[in-house]
TrEMBL record:
GO terms for molecular function: nucleotide binding. This is PH domain-containing protein. GO terms for cellular component: plasma membrane. Residues 346-495 form the Pycsar effector protein domain. Coiled coil: none annotated. Pfam families: E2-Crich, E2-ntca, PycTM. It comes from the Eukaryota. Residues 84-177 form the Prokaryotic E2 domain.
Length: 499
């Protein structure tokens, strides 16, 4: 019995499948009519969107109607092909503009371009339209938005509408109306500069957005620090960076995170991570400008032409970027750049002279301290000595030591003696600056040309060089008298003090 049940359970009967009814020719013709075909394609598209919601393009298309966009055509039966949409954009004055766009999926991102360039140019770096016609909706390192869910798809649509509104404003203004990313590899350096500036303070990042910073290489290569990068803020130098040592040169200065002259502020090396951030900002700022110039030079070599939509486009002056003969304007610009480099070098030389003057005064302090100790010890030994020990030789050695010590201190005093003589007119020398009112000095400084500032710097360099020379002459004399007083001081001590 068990054997029979087992055979019955394992017995396989062939399934009975009824034949599939064939579609009639008349019904097939009805499906081919345009209204029914459009409805079927729409239903199929909606079904594919729901079933394949993991794809970025599907997520974007699913929200098209919500963002005032209508699907016009799907070129093939596969949804992987590029769909065409009419996107209506409402500007601030309530005017509606319809753009016919083509969407495409690239990895996790969705790109958009105009179907036929009519309202927008086919290529314009200043208007952020790439060479293939796609819109630059963000930079690859920080600005691109991966469409991963419904929320990111909504952000993508919001960014597209904002981009098209900016295009409408740019057409009226003649330039891009908003803060923008740099072109090519310069965008990466721009991102590094903005990250460093944001950590250095709100004033720092606001001045960066206002284009108030500039980083230029100094004209002279320092034998110790190599090439030096000078950072300017509103035309005023704030700090230098050594390319060879990869650091800020004067880390003892007040931190740059506070704008203006703030007393009792932390030094740059003691203000958190600002010392490293200052170096990163300077290098990123310089690389940003260099990469931007390199992008435009490479673009000019491709014989790209300007579309005429942006007044700030460098392609407008493409023939003048590499002229065969130098024009007067280019000669003047080169001369101004040469003067600027000379002015930066003059500032560095002036700072070196001030450092030499400060070093001379430090040496004098050591000499005065030693001489004071020697004279005090000699006076104590003389007062404590017995009358029999005060021989003629003891008096001679004592007076000789005292004379040499006094001469050494007098020479040291000549080093510290202030020298306030200078040129009749100067925007740098404190004595002449103090003679002017604040308004007169500000007006004179603003009206002065780079050549006049360079003359003022060189005059101050020459005058401070004379002061440094005189100070070191007196330092050498003071050290000579100090060394000369050593021998009679030892002799006097040996005669006056009995062991």
């Amino acid at each position: 019995m068990r054997r029979w049940l087992r055979r019955s359970l394992h017995r396989r009967m062939p399934p009975h499948v009824p034949p599939r009814p064939k579609r009639s020719r008349r019904r097939f013709q009805r499906l081919q009519s345009p209204p029914i075909l459009t409805c079927v394609r729409t239903c199929v598209l909606s079904t594919r969107i729901v079933m394949t919601s993991e794809k970025p393009l599907m997520r974007v298309l699913a929200l098209a109607e919500e963002f005032d966009a209508a699907l016009i055509d799907v070129p093939s039966s596969s949804i992987a092909s590029d769909p065409v949409l009419d996107v209506a954009v409402t500007s601030a004055d309530s005017r509606r503009t319809i753009y016919r766009l083509v969407l495409a999926a690239r990895g996790g991102e969705v790109t958009a371009r105009e179907h036929t360039p009519s309202k927008l140019p086919g290529f314009c770096p200043q208007l952020h339209i790439n060479g293939d016609g796609t819109f630059c909706l963000g930079w690859n390192g920080a600005g691109l938005l991966a469409v991963e869910d419904e929320a990111s798809a909504r952000l993508w649509w919001a960014r597209l509408h904002g981009y098209l509104r900016l295009q409408q404003r740019a057409r009226r203004l003649g330039h891009w109306p908003d803060r923008e990313w740099a072109h090519g590899n310069a965008a990466g350096y721009q991102n590094e500069a903005e990250v460093a500036a944001a950590q250095l303070g709100e004033d720092f990042i606001e001045d960066l957005y206002a284009d108030k910073f500039e980083a230029t290489w100094c004209g002279r290569i320092h034998p110790t620090h190599g090439r030096m990068l000078q950072v300017f803020r509103e035309g005023v130098p704030i700090y230098k960076v050594s390319e060879r040592h990869q650091r800020v040169l004067n880390s003892r200065q007040a931190c740059i995170c506070v704008k203006g002259d703030v007393k009792r502020h932390r030094r740059l090396r003691s203000c958190g991570e600002h010392l490293k951030l200052a170096f990163d900002f300077a290098l990123a700022l310089r690389n940003w400008v260099s990469a931007e110039d390199e992008f435009w030079r490479a673009l000019v070599k491709t014989s790209a032409t300007c579309c005429g939509r942006s007044a700030t486009c460098r392609l407008r002056a493409a023939p003048q970027l590499e002229p065969e003969t130098e024009s007067p304007a280019s000669i003047d610009a080169a001369a101004q750049g040469h003067v600027r480099e000379r002015l930066t070098a003059a500032q560095w030389v002036f700072e070196r002279h001030l450092a030499w003057i400060a070093a001379a005064e430090v040496k004098v302090g050591i000499i005065v301290a030693i001489q004071t100790a020697m004279l005090g010890g000699l006076a104590a030994a003389f007062s404590a000595s017995e009358p029999a020990a005060r021989t003629a030789w003891a008096y001679f050695a004592t007076f000789l030591t005292a004379g040499f010590g006094v001469l050494s201190i007098v020479c040291a005093a000549m080093v510290l003696f202030p020298r306030t003589s200078g040129p009749e007119k100067s925007l740098l020398f404190f004595a002449k600056v103090a003679c002017l009112s604040q308004e007169d000095y500000s007006e004179s400084f603003l009206k002065s040309s780079p050549e006049e500032l360079l003359r003022d710097w060189t005059a101050q360099i020459h005058r401070n060089a004379q002061i440094a020379r005189d100070k070191y002459i007196w330092v050498r004399r003071s050290m000579g008298w100090a060394f000369g007083s050593g021998i009679p001081w030892i002799l006097a001590g040996g005669l006056l003090v009995k062991v």
